[in-house]
Amino acid sequence: LKFQVVSELDYYDRLIEAWGLFERIALTLGWVPGIATFCCVFNVMHAAVTARAAEIATYRALGFGQTSVVLAVVAEALAIALAGAAVGIGASYLVFDGNFVTAGARDASVVHVLAVSPEVIGIGVAFACVVTLAGCLGPALRVVRMPVTAAMRRL
Question: How far, in Å, CA of 20 to CA of 80, rounded?
Answer without folding.
Answer: 37
